[in-house]
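Researcher: I'd like a structural prediction for the single chain below. Treat it as a standalone chain; there are no partners to consider.
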Amino acid sequence: MVDFIKVYWRDKTIIEPFVTDPQNFETLYSVLEEHSGEIKYPKRANIENMLIVISANSGYVKNSIHKFYNLIKDSEEHNYNDFTYSNLCYSIDTLASKLTNIDSAIVTQLEFGFNIPTPKPAEIIIERMVLMHLYKGANHNKEFHGNGKLKQFDHSTYLIKIYDKAKQYSLNQNILRFELKLFSQRDLKFMGVNQLIDL
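Model: Treating it as a single chain, here is the predicted structure.
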């Protein structure tokens, strides 16, 4: 299932006028230099959980599109349920309708995740059975935001995370979460993903 996305505009002028228009976004945050009163970058706004950031030169929107779907459908921010292709298409269409010039933005990060129901707690599986990836141990071997075990394997163009999704959300079931996050444009282009619509 597609989860985290980051979509990037190289030129901020494509997106900034739309985001700073109060008719489009009631709430816009920016940095205020207190002594001069000058408003500085970055400027930030949200569409549900999707964070929009405008910097001095560029802009991007990022976060979990799976959680975005659950927020607009059920007002719940989580990603432990199934996220179908039709759900993804609906989410992309909804996000695109709330932005402008989405076709001129490029995907720079993409994360796939899936949940595996397990007969025993995911924490035990992670501790005892997830030992290495490509013959290397985990770069991060810790608790996931204080809830459950996490092992993360960092590579130059991607990372792999394996953690206890049930503990993250205090669920009464055992769920092992596996995520692959890509942050190489070359790899994304190789897969045919350049723009959001390509998903």
